[in-house]
Amino acid sequence: MDSKFTFFNSAYADFNTAVEAANKAIQDKLKDYSDEALRQAVQALEDAANAAKAAQDAADSIEGLHDYVNGAFADGIINEAEAKAIELMRQVGIPSPEKRLDQYPFEFSGGMRRRIIIATALACDPKLIIADEPTTALDVTVQAQILELLKKLTKEKGTSVIMITHDLGVVASMCDRIAIMYAGQIVEEGTVDEIFYEPHHPYTKGLLNSINNSAKDNDEPLVPIPGTPPDLLKFPKGCAFMSRCPYTMKICEVQASPVTTYSETHCCRCWLECMDETKITVSGEEAAANE
After folding, report:
1. pLDDT 10s digits, 90-146
2. CA distance linking residue 259 with residue 268, whole number of Å
3. φ and ψ at 181, to 5 degrees?
4. Maximum CA pair distance of the chain?
5. pLDDT band at 289, cuts 50/70/90?
6. Residue 8 to residues 3, 5, 124, 225, 226: CA-CA distances in angstroms?
7. How far apart are alpha carbons 254 and 241 in whole angstroms?
8. What is the mean pLDDT of the chain?
9. What's the average model confidence in pLDDT over 213-232?
10. Residue 111 near residue 137 (C-beta atoms within 8 A)
């Protein structure tokens, strides 16, 4: 058999194994939650054009979820579902919702498609919305409108929002708490002020140094994070960030760091922080001895 084909089969098998393991981990985690809890968490997708099916009008998108949750089809209450869809479209700022109800995604702008997805997410009155890159591919004006809409909905409906984003400007304006993730692991967590003004993890500092900051001199160049993310199929034994970190130590190569806690709201996972014995009792040498 051709060596390239053999390598491809091997890589494909490794990838499938990793995906199956991830799926199993997710399914095992979901078992801890009741159907009611899962019903109350709805994801607002990044790609609104694909999420709103091309052959499905706005009414189908919103009414379908509402009917599934509330059993409107089973009871024959079609008018109630349509009224709910119109109400939700009005809440998210769609003009003339009665006329827009039967329109298709290609008849909406990008910002309006995003609003339809948010309306769909609200159809089952969730307590939690997971917003995955909600402002991607939108111009600055529409981004501000979508963020303002999410703020309004959280205030009026008491709905919590988890924002998944690379835009630190969105984070600063929207969030109360921040979890910085690298290679699938939370490396630092804290309030907005703690993360932006008292960062501890080298990756957090790297993110902040790589974006434009009005507090900096305008002539000061941005500092990118060197290197590339790790291969998740060949995950390092120690710290996932060590190949890109300017402060890497030997302990970083052999073992992941424990969590260092600074306050009730602020914590970090980095050996550099663990070396301060006033913050944590486990030192790098002790961790290496436990290998």
Report:
1. 888 888 888 888 888 888 888 888 888 888 888 878 888 888 888 887 888 888 888
2. 6
3. -115, 140
4. 70
5. very low
6. 9, 5, 44, 31, 29
7. 13
8. 75
9. 77
10. no
Q: Give the C-alpha separation, 223 to 227, whole Å.
A: 13
3 membership: H or E segment, kind and range: helix 3-30
**Strand ranges for the chain from DSSP E:** 41-44, 128-132, 160-164, 177-182, 185-191, 259-261, 267-269
Q: Please tell me the distance from the alpha carbon of residue 83 to that of residue 123, in angstroms, as a whole number.
A: 11
Q: Residue 187 carries which side chain, given as an amino acid letter?
A: V
Q: Name the 3-class secondary structure at 274.
A: helix
Structure tokens at 101: 């109800």
CA 177 to chain centre: 13
| pTM, 2 dp | 0.69
What is the CA angle 223-189-289, rounded to 5? 90
Phi-psi region of 128 (alpha: psi -120 to 50; beta: other; left: phi over 0): beta
